[in-house]
Amino acid sequence: MKIVLIGYMGSGKSTIGKLLAKELKCRFLDLDDVLENNLGTSISELFKTKGEVFFRNKEHHFLNELLTEDSNFILSTGGGTPCYSGNMDSMLQYADAVFYLKVSIPGLIERLIPEKEHRPLIKDIANEDLPEFIGKHLFERNNFYLKANHIVECDNKSPQHIADEIIGLLG
């Protein structure tokens, strides 16, 4: 079974993916980790030295490589992954299920402010400007996110509750 988790940064894709992998007894993969391991450098370094177009091309390549391999896994994607290069169509075609982990703007802000220093995209944005920044991104990405097979509302739920909800949706 191939399960893909999508959603904005801070939505819990990695945390919930690891819980699902443990409960479903399969591999957990983080697409960013796959890229870093295969390319031998960090995502932020890739963006700095090669640019976003290079990064998105490599992201598309490794995503499709994973989706077409014959193995079971839970895959956490980057927040922007579904929005480029037909990636969302590939996920819907090759994965058994794509779950959008939906978190409100206030919920995302609450989760992201404590970890801003580790998030290059928002590191230099003032806290009071985060709602507008995140809102703009969500508006741009929503059409892609909403194509997921399942939309899981994540506000005010524990990671375990969300993982259990996803397992329930899998049948």
From TrEMBL:
> Which SUPFAM superfamilies does its entry note?
P-loop containing nucleoside triphosphate hydrolases (SSF52540)
**Where does this polypeptide localize?**
Cytoplasm
Query: Which residues of the sequence carry a binding annotation for Mg(2+)?
Result: 14
Q: In which pathway does it act?
A: Metabolic intermediate biosynthesis; chorismate biosynthesis; chorismate from D-erythrose 4-phosphate and phosphoenolpyruvate: step 5/7
Top-level EC class: transferase
The record's remark on the cofactor is: Binds 1 Mg(2+) ion per subunit.
| Pfam families on file | SKI
Please give the cofactor(s) recorded in the UniProt entry for this protein. Answer: Mg(2+)
Tell me the GO molecular function terms: kinase activity
Residue stretches in coiled coil: none
Q: What is its main location?
A: cytoplasm
Q: Which residues bind ATP?
A: 10-15, 119
UniProt signal peptide = none
Q: How does it assemble?
A: Monomer.
Q: What is this protein called?
A: Shikimate kinase
Q: Which organism is it from?
A: Arenibacter antarcticus
| Lineage, uppermost ranks | Bacteria, Pseudomonadati, Bacteroidota, Flavobacteriia, Flavobacteriales
Which gene underlies this protein?
aroK
